[in-house]
Amino acid sequence: MKAYYRSLTPLILWKHAERPINWAARFWRSAPLVVEIGTGAGEYLVRQAARHPELNFVGIEREWQSVKRALRRIADAQLTNARVLLGDATTILERSFAPHSVDRFYSLFPCPWPKESHEKHRLFNQRFLAILRSKLKPTSQELQEPPFQIVTDHASYRDWIAAQTPGSGFTMDWQAIAPQFDTKYERKWRETGQTEFYQLSFYPTELSQPPHLSQEEIALETYCLPHFNPERFEPRSEGGALTVDFRDYLYDPSRNRAICRVAVIEDGLFQDFWIEINHKPEGWRAVPSDGCLIVPTVGVQRALDLVKEAMIRSAES
Ligand SMILES: C[S@@+](CC[C@H](N)C(=O)[O-])C[C@H]1O[C@@H](n2cnc3c(N)ncnc32)[C@H](O)[C@@H]1O
Question: Is 130 helix (H, G, I), strand (E, B) or coil?
Answer without folding.
Answer: helix
